[in-house]
Amino acid sequence: MSPNNKINKLIIAACVLLTFPLCIHLFQNHLVKGHDSLQGLIMAIYMEKFTGDGGQFLIRWASDVNYGYGYPMFNFYMPFFYLFSVGISLFTHDVILGINLSCVFFWIISGVGMYILAKEFWGPAGGFVSAIAYLYAPYHIQDLYVRGAFPEFSAFAYFPIILFAFFKLNQKIQKRFIALAVISCFLLWVTHSLMGMLFYPLVICYLAFLFMFNKNLSALWLSFIALCLGFLMATFYWLPATWDQRYLNLAFFVSMRNDFHKNFISVGQLFHLPWGQVADSDGISFQVGLMHVFLILLPLFFISKIFFKNKKASRQYGFFFIVTLITMFFTLSPSALLWEHISFLKLVQLPWRFLAIIAFTTSLLSGSLALILKQKIASNTFAILAVIGIIACSARFMTQESFINVDQKTLSNNLGSYLTLGEGRTTPKWIKTPPLSFPKQKFEFVQGEGIILEDKIVSSIEHIAHVEAIQPSLICFHSFYFPGWRVYVDGKETQIFPDNPYGIILFAVNSGEHSIRVVFGQTHVRLLAVIISWLAFLIFTVWMCFYSPSK
After folding, report:
1. pLDDT tens, the chain, 551 aa long
2. Was domain 443-520 assigned CATH 2.60.40?
3. Beta-bridge partner residues of 243
4. Which residues pair with 513 in a beta bridge?
5. What backbone phi and psi angles, to 5 degrees, belong to 515?
6. Strand pairing partners for 469?
7. What are the φ/ψ torsions at residue 473 (nearest 5 degrees)?
8. Using CA atoms, how far apart are residues 140 and 362, in angstroms rounded to an integer?
9. Count of beta carbons in the 10 Å neighbourhood of residue 242
10. Domain coordinates of the chain in residue numbers?
11. Whole-number Å distance between alpha carbons of 158 and 102
12. Hey, which bits of 283-324 come out as E strands?
């Protein structure tokens, strides 16, 4: 084993060990007490129960929630974290423990990934500092323990891996770096699409930055192809999630608490306020981290020395320092004009979400001072002192973790009592008056007269009934309407009338006996999205099988 490999393994082991103080309490089946953690548990439980039900591997409609009227939340929420946690729960036999262990896994990967990236610029000592800075970044910690935003938290793991893959690809074209770039980009989009929207512009700028100095046109083209393939492989999720927003009542949700005008932060909040002492009623701290700021500003006093010692690394410092300043600007109110005119920013909703990118760039820059330390003992001393400082400054954030006990079996058996309409995040636009209780039966005559002879649940997304209408009638199927629902009367598709106060499924029948089938399925857009994803995956597979980089 070469000395460098031995050092790398020792540092990676140290990164893993230093992750445990952050997540030691996650090795139990208590749910993190965060803003969105209960919703995350509901989604994981639902995915565990109904994946494969009715032939749907990709769940889009949650039929049990909201008193059994359903909700299209899986059409808009990223699936990968929950699929991953459900996979873990197959071994733990506990959904909460599966979620917690998934968080531990992604936390470890984020630190190891940051080390692998940062050591390329600052060497092993600097890489170690950057890795610990990333693990202990205030927003990284709060994303889990305060917000309970499991998918966004897990997206932190992909940032360093993606940039490492493209950096190495632009150094030397190798198939493994292409594959790593495509897969990590794909996983980012299906884990948290908003983080993909924020991170992709950084990646594109970084590729242009690399080309500016490397002049490697082949690497640039391969990088952009990899970037596009990762994006297109995730089309099955992001295209329907984007297209189907036209069917949602987003105005209420935005006006309630997600108007970006109300969510800018101040410079003081970025640098001074302690945990929880913020104007936001949710108790979120927007602090970048005092030690992080100190470590990225200190090299400015030695920038000329850094430049003459290692021009390539100093350029990396300059690039990410500028990116940090730009992303900080987007969190502040002076950027409001850009938020109003750049359409994709409105989807981000909350300007302080840029803290995820700031946490990444400031952590990466935190190890840069190691460049000017010539002697090994000096760089190692710097690394130890910096790590101690980072952990000490982040100690108070670690104390904010709290957990709640949840009876998973009771929750799983009572998903219908979980109400999602209050926030309106993915509320279908046809709903004007939400229901206040469970319906007495799934099918009901609301106009005319008739008898429900049979009512059978085939799956969570398919119901059949046999009815007798004494006269032409209007029948209600007690489920919220959303594109994808179809009603078949005697084998023929019939029109649905969703324009009613409750936004539920109404359809007409003539007098006589009828066989009714109500099923939720694909729309043209969702089907197209799945086809595009499969085609992109096929292209990627063929490319990896037959492509041979020229030596």
Report:
1. 566 788 899 999 999 999 999 999 899 889 988 888 888 888 888 888 777 665 667 788 888 888 889 888 888 887 899 999 999 998 988 899 999 999 999 999 999 999 999 999 999 999 999 999 999 999 999 999 988 899 999 999 999 999 999 999 999 999 999 999 999 999 999 999 999 999 999 999 999 999 998 888 999 999 999 999 999 999 999 999 989 988 988 665 554 556 777 788 888 888 864 443 433 446 677 888 889 989 998 887 776 666 666 778 888 989 999 999 999 999 999 998 988 888 778 778 789 999 999 999 999 999 988 887 777 888 888 889 999 999 998 887 776 567 788 877 777 777 777 666 545 567 888 988 888 888 989 999 999 999 999 999 998 899 999 999 999 999 999 999 999 999 999 999 999 999 998 999 999 999 999 999 999 999 999 999 999 999 999 999 999 998 887 65
2. yes
3. none
4. 468
5. -95, 125
6. 450, 512
7. -140, 165
8. 12
9. 16
10. 26-58+70-243+254-409, 443-520
11. 14
12. none
User: Distance (Å, rounded) from C-alpha 434 to C-alpha 68?
Assistant: 12
Angle between helices 235-243 and 175-191 (to 10 degrees): 30
Tokens matching residue 304: 């000329």
Q: Tell me if 412 sits within 8 A of 94, measured CB to CB.
A: no
Task: Please state, in angstroms and rounded to a whole number, the distance separating the CA atoms of residues 531 and 270.
Answer: 44
The residue length of the chain stands at 551
Half-sphere exposure of 434 (CA within 13 A, CB side): 16
Query: How many angstroms separate the CA atoms of 520 and 29, rounded?
Result: 34
Residue 408 structure tokens: 């998973």
Q: Angle at the Cα of 274 (from 18 to 255), degrees rounded to 5?
A: 110
Residue 317 structure tokens: 């410092």
Give the Cβ contact number of residue 459 at 10 Å: 15
**Which of 82, 50, 79, 76 is CA-nearest to residue 64?**
50
C-beta separation of 107 from 86 below 8 A: no
Residue with tokens 């693990």: 135
Say what the pTM is.
Answer: 0.90
Question: Which residue in the block uniquely carries the two structure tokens 């003081």?
Answer: 268
The CA dihedral of 45, 48, 52, 54, to the nearest 10 degrees, is -30
Tokens encoding 155: 């997206």
Report the Cα–Cα distance between both ends of the chain, in Å, rounded: 27
Quote the tokens at residue 342: 């750049």
